[in-house]
TrEMBL record:
Belongs to the RutC family. It comes from Desulfosporosinus hippei DSM 8344. This is Reactive intermediate/imine deaminase. SUPFAM superfamilies: YjgF-like. Pfam families: Ribonuc_L-PSP.
Length: 423
């Protein structure tokens, strides 16, 4: 693997130093991946006093401090993810949000989860553009611009943009099962709702002339995890979409997340990360066109017909959420949360190594726990895989996980060599 790009981890005293083995922000190529921020006062190291509004404000202050420390500004944020304990607190979060994004608004995901670290009411995560890139001692593509887009053929919201493209990725706002004409959740059950979410995603992509099969990662938030089979029935009618994708049975990387509640009392919400082959200008022609999606599976990690283990595009690999399954037997490993976390990370390592990368190339890790109190036990195992604690990280507690697992982990990995243009 080349050293063309560098993984750049940074921390500032003006935001909380991690309560675990991770960095505040990890930049690679044209994106900064921030660790999810809790409402911690960086001076005291404790949660701020007050309710959801005060906690949301502290989360955003921490994000702003991190962004400013790396010579960026809040308008460089391309995606915000808001986790709350109580979905009704979203209104309070919105009041604060408007003061940090008074004009431009990024893409956004809102979800209520079962628990957050330190018993917080709010946790907020940001993905930030990195115009200068991280190529050491070499010129980058210059001051790349963000491309924002909204279409009337999908639900619009004054607090989020449907799609924000930067460099070689489009980040889409999580889609609820809303009929864009009526502005209401569609009638029916979870199948109808999943279909509407995916229709909305497709409408957004069509409005910017991007094929549906350019999606590299899908995150599905479910009110009831037992609905996954019904959602999968609908899902397989959308993926693969094109003849080319069907010929190679391409499906994106995927993560399933149990939500305790979703906006508008929806049963399902779907988020997509999409490749952007032509990039955002200004870029040299040879750097812009014809990049390919590289999907890969290895026998050394669990396989699924509904997701690809890792999908690379340009300078990132997106890895499907890994459960603690033994790839040889397909069964859950014996033991408790330590053994399960170890297996999840072994599976990630096997996938990373199968595409000629190493664990030091991981820039972001997302951990989903059945019991948030298990985080210390998970960290014991985690530090054996990430002894330097570099990747940015998000940890949330969920009400349930597939196969009744105690832990599930997914990752975003740097891809120094990038993906080549079509031959």
């Amino acid at each position: 693997m080349s050293n063309y790009n560098a993984v750049l981890a940074r921390n500032t005293e003006n935001a909380p130093k991690s309560i675990g083995p991770y960095s505040q922000t990890v930049a690679y190529s044209h994106y900064n991946n921030l660790s999810a921020q809790l409402p911690i006062d960086p001076k005291s190291g404790k949660l701020v006093a007050g309710g959801a509004k005060e906690q949301a404000e502290q989360c955003f202050k921490n994000i702003k401090a991190i962004i400013n420390s790396i010579d960026h500004v809040m308008s460089d944020v391309v995606r915000i993810t808001v986790f709350v304990k109580n979905i009704k607190d979203i209104d309070a979060v919105d009041e604060v949000y408007k003061t940090f994004f008074p004009g431009y608004v990024p893409t956004r995901t809102n979800v209520a989860v079962a628990a957050l670290p330190m018993d917080a009411l709010v946790q907020i995560e940001a993905l930030v553009s990195n115009g200068e890139g991280t190529i050491p001692n070499a010129p980058q593509a210059g001051d790349l611009i963000k491309l924002t887009n909204n279409t009337a053929n999908a639900p619009t919201c004054p607090l989020s943009t449907q799609a924000v493209a930067f460099s070689h990725y489009n980040n889409l706002t999580a889609q609820l099962p809303i009929d864009p004409k009526s502005g209401r959740v569609v009638a029916g059950g979870v199948k109808e709702q999943a279909g509407q979410c995916l229709k909305n995603i497709k409408a957004i992509l069509e409005s910017i002339d991007v094929p549906f099969d350019d999606i590299v990662k899908i995150n599905i938030f479910l009110k009831n995890l037992s609905d996954i089979e019904a959602v999968n029935e609908v899902y397989t009618t959308f993926f693969p979409d094109s003849g080319i994708a069907r010929a190679v049975a391409y499906v994106p990387a995927r993560t399933i997340i149990a939500a305790s509640a979703l906006p508008m009392d929806a049963l399902v919400q779907i988020e997509a990360v999409v490749s952007h082959g032509d990039g955002t200008p200004p870029q040299a022609v040879e750097d812009r066109h014809g990049l390919i999606i590289e999907a890969n599976n290895t026998e050394n990690a669990p396989k699924s017909s509904l997701s690809t283990q890792t999908v690379a595009f340009s300078h990132y690999n997106h890895i499907s959420a890994q459960l603690p399954l033994n790839p040889k037997t397909g069964e859950m490993v014996a033991g408790g949360v330590k053994e399960q976390a170890g297996q999840c990370l072994k599976n990630i390592k096997a996938i990373v190594e199968s595409v000629d990368h190493v664990m030091d190339d991981v820039v972001k890790v997302n951990i989903f726990l059945k019991n948030i109190a298990d985080i210390n036990a998970v960290d014991e195992v985690y530090t054996t895989f990430f002894p330097s604690g570099v990747p940015a990280r998000r940890t949330v507690g969920v009400s349930a996980l597939p196969k009744d697992a105690l832990v599930q982990i997914d990752a975003v990995v740097s891809n120094a060599e990038g993906t080549p243009p079509k031959a």
